Amino acid sequence: MTLTLIDVPLSPFAQKVKLALREKNIPFEIRNTNLTEADGARLKANPRGEIPALLDGDAAVWDSTIILEYIEEKWPEPALWPKDPLARARARQIEEICDGPFEAVIFCTTEVTAFRRAEGELQAAILGAAKQTIQQLFAYLEEQLGDAPYFNGASFGRADCAVFPHVMNAKAQRTPPAEGSKLAAWLARALERPSVQQTLAEAKAGLGEFKAMAEAYGSARAKRQYRDFRLEWMLQAGGLPVIQDGLAKGNIRFGGLV
Prior knowledge:
Elements: E1 3-7, H1 12-23, E2 29-32, H2 40-45, E3 53-56, E4 59-62, H3 64-74, H4 85-113, H5 120-145, H6 158-172, H7 182-190, H8 194-205, H9 210-218, E5 224-225, H10 228-236, H11 240-249, E6 252-253
Parallel strand pairs: 1-2, 5-6
Antiparallel strand pairs: 1-3, 3-4
């Protein structure tokens, strides 16, 4: 039965799932979608309108973490989970930090750079707060990595799939791991993996979508989703005017069903 992933190549959540599928050598097809446009198939697969969604025949599984749970249960080998229950809990915690606070700060910096939601002193303040937050996240990840080659331990696993998109996005925004750090060495190892190289190539090919996305959000034809950590981080960074402006223009939304 054919697996199809509803994808946006730049999404760290979609990248996480693609890395897991490729590390497990599970064949799948990609169906690209555009978050700035209505997509009946995407909404049918996920009532929140988010990506990714995994179509397994007539069944749809959504939310990247739930998808990874599904993949591991249906295709247990090769395992992306460590065997030890405590190590599994630790991997889940790393994934939670990356999908929550780390994704949020990258999302918000993209808002004020690529989508120009703030300029001048406000933009500088938000970007300054972002660099500080990213350094805190790097310190946490460095501690979690320890002396192991991967977050999963001896082998590349689920936690690594979760970490890679966010660390790579931070690097793309000119805040890479410190040269000579354990995290920088981990990133270099990850970049050698075929699964990572293919997923990263797809992301780079999707960079051209930013201009059209900016136009869609600027004209309120589409709405950026400010959910939980994203909203929280933007407010903490002093970005209340960004939220107020988005509400006035009608080009942001919050969580819930679409």
